[in-house]
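Structure (tokenized):
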């Protein structure tokens, strides 16, 4: 029999049996099982613990609608056989938004604010008024996708939704938010299939990192609470909140593919913003090489690796924030708790193995020890440099660990819960190896390899680190390690004033000794032309290059002031490099060379400042963080090989 005929036959038989066994209270008597409320018309059932439960008793659907689209909503709900149990809610208007519902500096227009508040109110409404385990939100321009139905009538959509719940309840697809109408997602390299639907061949549940569009989506109660958390107060449009809830680890975010619903742009256009092209999969987007916010997937071996391209030039210079402040604050709480609390009575020293005076390298070498501390709940002491370097870097220029200044970065609730995410038993010798590091020591090098994300992927990450993902977590650690003291902040402000630091967009140009200035400028002009940048901050130790800036008169070059004398005191070189790092990271785009720790750390600091990926071009390889392991692709005279990162 055709699948459709089987579904209708099952519905008829089951409905008759249920009606026949109704007790006086309208409930079904199930032998040895919990009673199930009366079926109410859709004919859709989810299989839970061996029992077919009517969809109406599991799901509270809601439609956000403007009055002018109400008739369209009613018509489509009838077509998909969901009108009888769907709540039609009036969309919030701009004048109805309360002050606390949107952050003051949200970069949203009036329509975007109203739409996003409408979604956020739906989560609160569901949690407060419904006792059902699942909720659903439609936007009022939704339409079903005929191609996804594969010959089935639209009235079978409730069963498709019920099957998604069955997949969830059976453990085959542990979604907590499920997008039924995703758009502009990175499907080519950034998704994996989780499960097929039980009764509909071709429909599957997938997990990806950039599933936009809030046309129609499901959630369980945990997912609703997570969506409310990231959307109250509103800081980004509702589409971005969906993506953020998954990327930030607040809830398991998945999608149905092919999508069941889309926006009816032909009849309704958009009352909110310019209409973007809506496709389910944006196979040609930059996101396919920047999965999970700068963490793309290696197609050859399936291992997630660092930012996997030496060039990233998005359409806009200033992208939308992709790392919500709440998510970053929570992770910073985990990091801060490792530096100020000892809930598990474990202590661990942080010692750098960088050469004297190499500030960025010192910062980069401390990432893996911090990863270990987070994974196993160690309390770490303020870092120290190699014994050959007498500068008190964390104290003279950078905040020591556990200092009051760190409190502004963190969420107190995260500090309290950090150690609940720690693994209780540390069977490794890495705490000792990282406390007394020495290149060439087999135990130390073994631990460096153990925390190689290139080699081990997510297994190398702590539970708290997984809440952000590898790249964002590592750069957050870099940001924590580079918290400036008040005196260093004042020094950087004074330098900016002396340099007449522009208020408009700036390209950071980090040119290393022996490099061709003309080649760097060739790459720089790719960025300046695309984004209209006129200011270039030149960071270089090769003073002969300064004269070459005269060959490019259309740009305003900001050049570091020549030191009055060569660095002599133990901390002089560190102060100079820190000043450079903060100026590089204060720019809006970067041209440099990621084979140098200075440029890698500067880009990490830039990312944490803007909480999004800024444009960059690296003349030699991609960004990486893998101290002591040959995992960075190194290019020399056109020949690729692996080099240290």
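Design, position by position:
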């Amino acid at each position: 029999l055709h699948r459709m005929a089987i579904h209708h036959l099952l519905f008829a038989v089951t409905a008759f049996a249920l009606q026949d066994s109704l007790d006086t209270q309208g409930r079904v008597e199930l032998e040895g099982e919990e009673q199930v409320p009366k079926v109410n018309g859709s004919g859709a059932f989810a299989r839970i613990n061996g029992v077919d439960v009517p969809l109406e008793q599991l799901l509270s659907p809601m439609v956000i609608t403007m009055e002018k689209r109400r008739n369209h909503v009613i018509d489509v709900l009838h077509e998909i056989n969901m009108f009888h149990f769907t709540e039609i809610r009036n969309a919030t208007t701009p004048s109805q938004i309360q002050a606390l519902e949107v952050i003051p500096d949200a970069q949203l227009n009036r329509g975007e604010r109203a739409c996003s508040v409408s979604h956020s109110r739906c989560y609160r409404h569901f949690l407060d008024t419904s006792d059902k385990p699942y909720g659903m939100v439609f936007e009022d321009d939704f339409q079903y996708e005929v191609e996804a139905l594969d010959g089935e009538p639209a009235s079978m959509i409730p069963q498709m939704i019920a099957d998604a719940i069955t997949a969830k309840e059976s453990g085959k697809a542990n979604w907590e938010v499920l997008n039924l109408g995703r758009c502009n997602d990175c499907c080519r390299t950034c998704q994996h299939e989780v499960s097929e639907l039980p009764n509909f061949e071709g429909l599957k549940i997938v997990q990806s990192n950039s599933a936009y569009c809030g046309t129609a989506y499901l959630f369980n109660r945990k997912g609703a609470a997570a969506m409310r958390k990231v959307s109250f107060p509103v800081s980004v449009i509702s589409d971005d909140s969906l993506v953020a809830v998954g990327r930030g680890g607040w809830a398991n975010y998945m999608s149905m593919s092919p999508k069941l619903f889309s926006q009816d742009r032909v009849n309704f256009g958009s009352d909110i913003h310019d209409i973007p092209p809506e496709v389910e999969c944006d196979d040609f987007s930059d996101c396919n090489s920047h999965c999970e916010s700068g963490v793309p997937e290696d197609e050859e071996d399936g291992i997630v690796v660092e930012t996997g391209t030496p060039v990233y030039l998005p359409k806009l210079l200033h992208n939308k924030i992709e790392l919500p402040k709440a998510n970053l604050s929570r992770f910073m709480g985990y990091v801060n708790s490792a530096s100020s609390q000892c809930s598990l009575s474990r202590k661990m020293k942080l010692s750098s193995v960088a050469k004297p005076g190499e500030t960025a390298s010192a910062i980069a070498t401390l990432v893996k020890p911090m990863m270990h501390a987070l994974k196993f709940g160690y309390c770490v002491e303020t870092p120290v440099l190699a014994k050959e370097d007498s500068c008190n870097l964390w104290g003279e220029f950078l905040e020591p660990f556990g200092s009051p200044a760190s409190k502004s970065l963190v969420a107190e609730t995260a500090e309290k819960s950090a150690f609940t995410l720690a693994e209780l038993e540390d069977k490794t010798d890495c705490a000792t190896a990282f406390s007394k590091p020495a290149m060439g020591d087999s135990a130390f090098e073994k631990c460096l390899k153990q925390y190689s994300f290139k080699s081990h992927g997510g297994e190398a990450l702590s539970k708290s680190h997984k809440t952000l993902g590898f790249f964002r977590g590592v750069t957050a650690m870099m940001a924590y390690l580079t918290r400036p003291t008040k005196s260093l902040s004042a020094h950087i402000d004074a330098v900016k004033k002396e340099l007449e630091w522009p208020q408009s967009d700036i390209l950071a140009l980090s040119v290393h000794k022996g490099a061709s200035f003309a080649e760097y400028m060739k790459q720089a002009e790719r960025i300046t032309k695309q984004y209209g940048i006129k200011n270039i901050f030149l960071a270089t130790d090769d003073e002969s290059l300064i004269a070459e800036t005269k060959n490019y008169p259309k740009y305003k070059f900001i050049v570091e002031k020549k030191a009055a004398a060569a660095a002599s005191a133990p901390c002089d070189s560190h102060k100079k490099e820190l000043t450079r790092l903060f100026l590089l990271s204060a720019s809006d785009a970067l041209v440099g060379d990621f084979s140098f720790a200075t440029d890698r750390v500067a880009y990490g600091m830039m990312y944490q400042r803007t909480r999004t990926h800024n444009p960059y071009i690296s003349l030699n390889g991609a960004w990486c963080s893998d101290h002591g392991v040959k995992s960075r692709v190194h290019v020399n005279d056109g020949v690729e090989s692996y080099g240290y990162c």
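Reviewer-requested clarification: Residues 110-129 form the longest helix (20 residues). Confidence is low (pLDDT under 50) at residues 1-39, 285-307, 405-420.
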